[in-house]
Structure formats: structure tokens, C-alpha cells
Amino acid sequence: MHPLDANRLHLTRRSLFGKTALGVGGAALGGLLTREGFAAQAPDAMAPALPHFAPKAKRVIYLLQNGAPSHVDLFDHKPMLKKMHGTQIPDSIVVGKRFSTMTGGQTARPVLGEISNFSRHGRSGATVSDFLPHTAAMADELCFIKSLHTTQVNHAPAITFFMTGSEQAGRPAIGSWLSYGLGSDAEDMPAFVVMTSRDKEASCGQIFYDFYWGSGFLPSKYQGVKFRGSGDPVLYLSNPDGMSRAVKRTILDGIAGFNQMKLRDFGDPEIATRIAQYEMAYKMQTSVPELTDFSDEPKHILDMYGPDVMRQGSYAYNCLMARRLAERGVRFVQLMHAGWDQHRNLNTQLKIQCTDTDAPSAALVKDLKQRGLLEDTLVIWGGEFGRTPFLQGKIEDTKQWGRDHHPYAFTVWMAGGGVKPGMTYGESDEFGFEVAKDGVHVHDFQATLMHLLGIDHERFTFRFQGRQFRLTDVHGSVVKPVLA
User: Fold this and answer.
1) How far apart are CA 448 and CA 319, in angstroms?
2) pLDDT at residue 276 in the model
3) E strands along 264-388, which residues?
4) 462-481, pLDDT tens digit by residue?
5) Which domain, by its residues, includes 164?
6) Cis amide linkage into residue 51, ω under 30° from 0
7) Do 211 and 255 lie in a common domain?
8) Whose CA is closest to 395, among 129, 84, 98?
9) Of the candidates 381, 382, 363, which has an alpha carbon nearest to the alpha carbon of residue 300?
10) Which of 135, 183, 73 is CA-nearest to residue 454?
11) Residue 16 included in any domain
12) How far is CA 414 from CA 61, 90, 183, 279, 368, in A?
């Protein structure tokens, strides 16, 4: 028997897969190589050639307000609510609609007028609540979408839908798609950074699940890197006692050598991830302490972000961190703030939430603009759905007024990054209940975000389990009227 034929008879399944995967491994490793070695996160060699066309935005800062801010109390002024306050909302409006279990069995659904006062602001005449004076003052910088709608009535699947394009966990987050396809402009920072915060009163028990920033079926090097809200932002960046940076470098070089040997043999992209993450961690030992040192920030800038800006883990602190990350070329910053779930405390907690988040959100936009970064940074502010125009609870029990989850129409705003400033797109009906004009589905919103980054959402796919997957699944259209 010919020696080659004999060798084929002894070829195991494991060996076959290991050998044939070399091409994939080499491509993944190639994505790590730059003029400075393995450190930078260049676009993956297996990803489509991106961008598809000239982008308006280079990076995104997503200010996700977990729990769902009440659109009818903050942005979407509806005089009908005040006019019908305390009376039953027409059955024709709510028939056949799903709500959470908190009001699913509630037969009395009295209309609840807004608990704040609205005014028009700027040349655009945008309606904004007096709970948000700093946001109102920059209304002409913002693009309001008042006709967003989604499919989910509970927090986790609704947030997952916004972040991944699917209600079920397991798909890549937006930031993972972008870091996979576009890479990073940062030499010593991850392409995708996540920070979380919550209201000081801990008024709701929402959990920040890791799959909100997971990489799904993409290689895990593209998942978000979560910065902690206390202590070292990233664990294990500091060298152990007695280990110098030079010694650490020698150890990493040795480990990288072994990992590269394994990568050559089996081509497992997770080995490439390990190489990349070791190198990134080494560079972050220097870059992260400098990033988190606010001593170079002028007092008037710190004051603009509000009194909590120096408290690590606060929303204000994270907003300033987001600006500093944007300056350093981070592609996607996902800032998540919980505390908007006002089922029984609307009369107290909504204003507290607005006070804590209004100034930092506005400061971030103004700070980016004065540094020349806003024009190519897309800032997004919004929740996973809105709140019902009818009351959860009893109308006479004012201390426990609340609003339930509402997926049928709600508001987000965007700034910079190629969207039209000073405009409002879409309308809800006279109750703020359902879309009346120019509806924007979650997938439309995601398609528009991708378009602003120079990506055709229908062409940017990843093959997994025999199917080409994309962020917008098989749906979505770019909302062209909001494009500058």
C-alpha cells in the first residue's frame, strides 16, 4: 500500500478537523497583526470588506436607559391625557394588546395625565419635560424619534432585542458586530467597552446580563469588555507583588509562543482570542490608569457633568469615561443605567432619575461637540420600550402611581454621527399609545445605525450553522429622513 494511502487510513476525525481548520486560524491570527504586533484589533480577515460606503460616524456611544423612561411624561406631549385624566381609556385603544403581568389582569385602566410640565425648546420647537432642563437646552442638537415600536413587553428580552436583533439570548451584540467588521482605532483599548450604573435608591431589581454585550457565535474576542464600577475597572491588570513589567513581558512572550504553536496545529479562533486578550491586557496596564485619571479635566468640564462625576460607577462618571474612550478611538461604548422601571413610584422616582441623568447626558453631547468629536460620534439615548398612558394602580392612591411597560410607541433621541439635528420624526396617536405616522421598528433603528457607520445591514453577515446571520435578521429598512 502506498504510504499516503496508509496515512489516510489512520487519519482521525479530530486530526482532520484540526488540520483543515488551519486556514481559519491563520486568517483569525492575521487579523491581530499590525505594525506593532498582536496588540491592535484590526478588522477580521474573514469579515466582509467594510465599510461598504463612506461612513458618517466612526463610533457609537449608546446610553441605554434600562427600565424604560416614560415617553408620555418626558418627550411625547399628549394634551388628551390631561383632558381625560382619571377616566377609563377607550377599550378600542387597548383591545388585543399585551402588557406585563402587573396590569395584564387589571380591568380599570384610568388615563394618567403627564406628571411633569412640557415646553417647546429651540428653533426646532421640540417638546421636552421640565424634568430634563439640560436636555431641553440642547434640543436643536437632537434628533427625536417618537414612533419606535418593539415586540417585547418584558425587560430582558426587550433589551436583548435592541442589543442583538433577537429576543432570545445568544446572538452577537451590536458592539460585537462592529468590532468584528470595523475593528478599532484604539491601539491600547478594546473596540467594545461596557459600563453599567443604577439609581442610588436601587428602586428596581433589574440585572445586567452578560449576553447584553456578548459576542454570540462570533469569536469571543469581539465581546464587550465590562469596566467595573468600583476598584480596578478591569480585574487582574495589576502585576502581582514582585513581578516587574519586563518579567511580565517575558512570560507573555513565552505563553504566546506556545499558543501560536497550538494555533498552527488546530486553527481554533479561541486560541487567537487568547493571544489577543493577553496582549491587550498588557497594554491596558498602562492605558487604563491614564484613562481613569480625571486630574487633567478642567473644573468647568467636571461641573458640567454634575456632582456625581467623581463617584466611580455613577452615571455621570460613566458619561465622562465614555467621552474619554471616544477620544481614544473605542468603536462602541455601551453605557447602561437602570432605575427607570416606575411601576409604583412614578411621582417620586421619575424626577430623581431625570436629575441624575439629565446633566451628564447633555454634558456628553456638548463635550463631544466642543472637541470636534460629535460630527463622527453617534450618541443614542433611550430605553427598551415606553410606559403606558394609563395608570398602573388606583387613581386615588397618588403615592403609588405607576405606568406599566409599553412596546407600541415610544421615544429615543440621537445626536451627531450623521443624523439631522433639531428634528422630530414620527408620531404616536393622541394617547401616545400606538404609532400614528412613520413607524420605526427595532430592526429599522438598527439598520439606520449600521448605515451611519457605512454598513449595508443586508450585506454584513456571518455564516453560522449553515445560515447567513445578520444583526437585523431578515428585516429592517434605513430610516432615510433622519440622515443628515
Assistant:
1) 23
2) 73
3) 332-338, 377-382, 386-387
4) 999 999 999 999 999 999 99
5) 58-233+299-482
6) yes
7) no
8) 84
9) 363
10) 183
11) no
12) 10, 33, 23, 35, 13
